[in-house]
Request: fold
Amino acid sequence: MRTFALFIATALAEIVGCYLPYLWLKQGRSAWLLVPATASLALFAWLLTLHETAAGRVYAAYGGVYIGVALLWLWIVDGIRPTAWDVAGVAVALTGMGIIMFQPR
Reply:
């Protein structure tokens, strides 16, 4: 459970770090948004170092959780409800994440 929570925190830090520059570039918001975006991306990189397994395995498994969190972001922040296909894709991605992270060692 700790691993999954850490993945969620990592995904949120990455999404915020990318969403704020998007607001600046695509929606004409203040360039000052780049300051918290930079901090969020630094937090994202640091959070990745807290995982206890090999970096490549962490990056591969993290992708599955990122997909799920990104679709929640789509729903909560952008106000667009994910489709059944989106949900199926997240289920496949999270299954892959589980296989990678929780394999017998």
